[in-house]
């Protein structure tokens, strides 16, 4: 523990934070012993009247009730069982504590709580299959981000700005915290739990939940369970990074990890319903459910070789971006497309890309552009997104400057042996290592995405050709109109001139003839402009032809 974290906790948190509910540690102690009975649990919960009321309410929720509602605490414990009662009681107590820390940031506090609850359930499921204490794992998962609201309490304005910065940056929140204060939420939360007397393994799990997977390989199972749960619970579908972490930390295959994650999501919905938090009424939760369904569809289709059908539903580029996020856990990418002349790679504007990317292009020349070289040689390769040393051409640097990430991965897209575009993925270094082991899936995805992108380009060319053809037909019609109108207007001008000469200068009709000649001249100018628009020439160049 660094001196800065220790100093922060003792100068700010210990004196300013509300007291942590003692019932949580008491329940953990009695449940971890293995010989707890209903009376032991009841005696602990009864010490807190508010918790007793909330537990009874949760126990009698529609999601958990199987008959007549329980009339008292003992009956609720008997019906639900000790494990469920422990989960609900600890959840209610910790939820109340997090609400006490809420400083007017309902959106991110709600997201923080939902993530913590999912992480808790998943930590417990992982602990059950790997021999760690499920109750300790649940509590550690529930509290792993405790340091976030504590930092927000100490630095409300600064932390709010840091949260906003983390949303649009590839640098992690704990990395930004450390840059600004020399400490992060994992260290702050762990130090607080140690101060309150939590078991060392729980504080370790909180302290190390952001450590790289390689550094956790031989850590205690409880620490590994919480770290993996935190990683897996970021996305509704187990991506490449999650699969490799599950294999390395707990020797779990992707299917096993996904099954446990599915269980966790189901229990999360049930637990939230027990506390009156309707998952169906929560847009964020509904979006998560949609993403989970899309993620399963995309991964199943990719592995079955039918990803094209998934990509083809809707806008091609938008779906490519969504599938990259769901299959590989990559949120930052650029789309470069080969132009019609096969001479340039042009940046494509997308909802998630830097707005300036559409102004940039690269020569489709392997000698002039390392990025283009990856495409022309059909090579999946990494590029440093930090251009120190000036090893890349300026044009390539400009493209990579528009991409968030520590490194970049070039993914070529071909169709019928012809290069059609390139995806440049912005990655963290651990993502890069994971994706380098997924060449097969990357190739399968690139084949389908390339075919769809080529089809979109062909349709765009056909649309442009159709518009040009329609424009040419319109120009031809305009020229015919000009030609057909030229002779009558010339005749009218000549006839009016003859009439003017035949009339005496002071004849009353002279004024009318002059007005008519002016109007004919005006019509002549309008037709001249129409002809110029059709031919692309200046009006004065054609005026003499009428």
From TrEMBL:
Pfam families: GAF, HDOD. InterPro entries: GAF, GAF-like_dom_sf, HD/PDEase_dom, HDIG_dom, HDOD, HisK_dim/P_dom, RNase_Y/CdgJ. Keywords: Transferase. It comes from the Bacteria. It is an enzyme of class 2 (transferase). Its EC number is 2.7.13.3. The keyword Phosphoprotein does not apply. GO terms for molecular function: phosphorelay sensor kinase activity. Residues 17-212 form the HDOD domain. It catalyses: ATP + protein L-histidine = ADP + protein N-phospho-L-histidine. PANTHER family: PTHR33525, TWO COMPONENT SIGNAL TRANSDUCTION SYSTEM RESPONSE REGULATOR (PTHR33525:SF5). This is histidine kinase. The lineage of its organism: Bacteria, Pseudomonadati, Pseudomonadota, Gammaproteobacteria, Chromatiales.
């Amino acid at each position: 523990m660094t001196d800065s974290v220790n100093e922060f906790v003792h100068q700010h948190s210990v004196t300013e934070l509300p007291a942590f509910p003692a019932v949580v540690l008491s329940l953990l102690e009695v449940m971890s012993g293995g010989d707890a009975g209903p009376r032991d649990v009841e005696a602990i919960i009864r010490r807190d009247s508010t918790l007793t009321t909330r537990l009874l309410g949760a126990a009698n929720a529609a999601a958990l009730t199987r008959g007549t509602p329980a009339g008292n605490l003992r009956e609720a414990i008997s019906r639900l069982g000790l494990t469920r009662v422990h989960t609900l009681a600890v959840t209610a107590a910790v939820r109340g504590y997090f609400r006490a820390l809420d400083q007017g940031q309902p959106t991110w506090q709600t997201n923080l709580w939902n993530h913590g609850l999912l992480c808790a359930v998943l930590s417990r499921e992982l602990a059950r299959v790997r021999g760690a204490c499920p109750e300790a794992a649940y509590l550690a998962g529930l509290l792993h981000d405790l340091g976030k609201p504590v930092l927000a309490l100490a630095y409300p304005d600064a932390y709010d700005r840091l949260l906003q910065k983390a949303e649009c940056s590839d640098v992690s929140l704990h990395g930004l915290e450390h840059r600004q204060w020399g400490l992060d939420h994992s260290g702050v939360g762990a130090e607080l739990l140690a101060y309150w007397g939590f078991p060392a393994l729980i504080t370790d799990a909180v302290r190390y939940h952001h450590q790289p997977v390689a550094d956790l390989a031989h850590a205690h199972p409880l620490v590994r369970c919480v770290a993996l749960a935190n990683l897996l619970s970021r996305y509704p579908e187990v991506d490449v990074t999650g699969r490799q972490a599950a294999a390395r930390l707990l020797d779990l295959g992707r299917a096993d990890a996904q099954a446990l994650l599915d269980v966790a999501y189901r229990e999360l919905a049930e637990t939230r319903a027990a506390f009156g938090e309707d998952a169906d009424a929560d847009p964020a939760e509904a979006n998560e459910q949609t993403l989970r369904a899309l993620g399963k569809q995309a991964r199943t289709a990719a592995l079955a070789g039918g990803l094209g059908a998934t990509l083809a539903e809707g806008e091609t580029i938008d779906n490519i971006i969504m599938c990259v996020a769901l299959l590989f856990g990559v949120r930052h990418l650029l789309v470069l497309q080969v132009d019609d002349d096969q001479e340039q790679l042009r940046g494509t504007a997308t909802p998630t890309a830097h707005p300036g990317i559409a102004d940039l292009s690269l020569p489709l020349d392997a000698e002039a552009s390392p990025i283009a070289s990856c495409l022309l040689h059909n090579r999946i390769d990494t590029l440093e997104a930090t251009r120190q040393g000036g090893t890349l051409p300026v044009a390539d640097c400009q493209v990579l400057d528009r991409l968030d990430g520590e490194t970049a991965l070039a993914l070529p897209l071909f169709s019928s042996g012809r290069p059609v575009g390139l995806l440049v993925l912005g990655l963290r270094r651990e993502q890069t290592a994971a994706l380098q082991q997924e060449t097969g899936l990357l190739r399968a995805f690139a084949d389908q995405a390339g075919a769809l992108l080529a089809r979109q380009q062909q349709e765009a060319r056909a649309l442009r050709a159709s518009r040009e053809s329609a424009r040419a037909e319109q120009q031809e019609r305009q020229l015919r109109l000009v030609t057909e109108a030229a002779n009558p207007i010339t005749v009218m001008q000549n006839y009016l001139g003859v009439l003017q000469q035949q009339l005496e200068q002071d004849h009353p009709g002279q004024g009318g003839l002059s007005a008519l000649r002016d109007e004919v001249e005006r019509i002549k100018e309008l037709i001249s402009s129409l002809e110029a628009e059709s031919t692309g020439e200046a009006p004065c160049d054609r005026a003499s032809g009428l």
